[in-house]
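Before relying on records like the one below, remember that each one covers exactly one chain. Contacts with other chains, cofactors or solvent are not represented anywhere in the record.
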Amino acid sequence: MPRSPLLKSLVLVLLVCCGLHASIARSALIELQPSALFAGPGDSIALDIIVGGLGSAGPESLGAFDVSVGFDVSSISFTGYSLGDYLGDVGLAEAIDASAGDMGAAVNVAEVSLLTGSNLDLLQSDSFVLATLAFDVVNLGPSDFTQLSVLNGPLLVDAFGSPLSVTSMSGASVRGVSSPGTLMLLAASMLGWLMVRCRQPT
C-alpha cells in the first residue's frame, strides 16, 4: 500500500524537529548576573555564574563544570566564592569542589557531581547558579568601569560524562559611583555657596 505524501511530510517534519531538539539540548550558555553593577571603592559586589539552555528535568543534566572568569585586579579584588547546590552538596559528599580559586587576574570554579543522572534531573532546571563570586571594589572612579568575562574554554559535562557545547558566553560590567564622602563634601560646598549668596546684599 503506497504511503500518502502527507504522512511522508509529517514523518520528515518529526525527524527534523527531533534532530533540532537533540542539537539544542546538547548546547548551553553561560552568563554572569547581574550583567551591570554600580559600585564605588570599598563596596562589596557579588556575581552569579549562571548556566542555561540544558532543558528542565531532562536527560542533559549537568554532571560537572570548570569555568574561569577574568577581571581587572587594579579595579576589583577577589574575596571568595560559593558553589551552588545543583550538582549536590559538597558538605554531604554529594559533589567534589575542584576549584582552583584565585589565579591572579582570573578566578576558577569547578565541581564534579557524585549523584546519579536521575537525581540531577530532579535538582536542576533549565537555568541555575553554578557559583557565586565575591569581590571588593578597590579603585573605580565615578566615570570608570571594569569588565568581567567568562574566559574561553569553559568545560561542561553531562551526567554521563559527555561534553556539552557552550554556544554563548556573556560577562558583566561594574561602573563606578561617587563615594558617600565625595557626595557629602559636594552637598556641603553647595550649601555653603547658597548661604553666601543669600547673605550678599542685592
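Residues 28-196 form a domain with the Immunoglobulin-like fold (CATH 2.60.40.680).
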